[in-house]
Amino acid sequence: MAAEAGVKRAFTFRHLSNKMINFMEDNKIRDLFVKWSMHGRITVQVFSFDQHFQAYEKDNFVRAFFQDPNVMANLKVLSALSCEWATLVGTEVKKIEAEEVPCNQLSMLFFDCLYTEGIVRETGHITKCLDEFYEDFTISDQLQQVLLLEDSDKYQIFSDTEREEFLFRIFKHLCLGGVLCQYEDMVDPYLETTKAVYKELVSVQKDPVTKDIRIISTVFKVSAYDDYGTCYPSIKKHEQTFAYLIVDPLKRHVHVLYHCFGGGLFCN
After folding, report:
1. pLDDT tens string 22-36
2. Model-level pTM greater than 0.70?
3. Which is it for strands 242-248 and 218-226: parallel, antiparallel or unpaired?
4. High-pLDDT (> 70) share of the chain, %
């Protein structure tokens, strides 16, 4: 759903520049990001906000986010033509798009079907296939087929609803990687990194009555437009160029998970 800019802001934001993101500091994950051609092109930033948040306010919230001077001065955006980080200072956002992303999964058992359907062997090895090409991706195993090819035999092991889940989206983004991605033979690095990212970005709370754990975060996939077209997350659209806002309504924090697909070889 698109919303026109210009409505008075109800939210103001502050950049939490000292907030450490553990998985971004993890050497093992850093090495994987290098291998997957995502290092230097993926980042997480944290902002705080000052008002009570409700999910139905998503358009107002995201619009206010992209109109806030503190956000515009600090929100990182990577040029699609180079590896230079910049901000949105001087950009006049005229329109935003905010897609609410389902975020309901509490367990990595979500991916057990990869084993039961033979996509991944008991040893953790990903089943190989003959190379084929799909857009910017070289498909060399059945996991990539499941992620990308709707006409593959095993595509339906994940329903359309499951594919919308934030957990699945993180997994897919990591598996597909950047333009010079070196794909894994084993599934564990993908699953372990997905778990680390998801666990840190998504907030949970124990229900005081049932004692069940429930997710309290709300997730939006966002884009912003100026007079010339898309200005965020990039002027060039790609499946692997994305920005998600993960909103914690209790702490009043919003994490921004960002990646720009491109020439990762020269990004350090």
Report:
1. 999 999 999 999 999
2. yes
3. antiparallel
4. 93
